[in-house]
Amino acid sequence: VSETRRLLPANLLPNYARFVQKTFGDRAHQLTWAGKPGEDSDTTLQRATIVPFVATQGDDAALREEARRLAAEWLKTRKGIDANMVNPVLTTAAQFSDRALFDTMTAELKKTTDRQQRSRILGAMGSFRDPAIAQAGLEMLIHSDIDIRESLALLIGPLGHRETQKLPFEFIKANYDEVVKRLPT
Description:
Blueprint: H1 13-31, H2 41-57, H3 61-77, H4 86-95, H5 99-111, H6 115-125, H7 131-140, H8 152-156, H9 167-182
Helix pairs in contact: 1-2, 2-3, 2-4, 3-4, 4-6, 5-6
């Protein structure tokens, strides 16, 4: 169901969101972002798929707001989210957030050397739908000390959203020589 969204014209996206909400919304709200003690693995797998899907594709404001709250807490403490849900929470929060969250993620990225945390933060940073924020992420490829191999999510992430899908190609065209200089031999 999620793959069909990209085939729809923009004027049908509200209908698609209503379909997602009607079909999966109740289950997403039953699951919530947080697991419960003793639940089975099927429920855990459903949560990681259905909750972020309804939040993003079903335009569920309550689930998006909860993702933003959880992401902010995790960025401060690296706690409060089940390990299986960190990526979905961070990327969902990023898709609908502002430059302040991007800047917080950038600051937290600089503070950690943990590769898994860095990967999670960079993945979320590549998920912003705001073209100006996505462009700022692309600029980090050539104007930061982040290893370009580590930061591919900043280049690939924007391809997944209509608002930003053309930015990576335009960025590479305009900055090809700079990007190549940063690549390993």
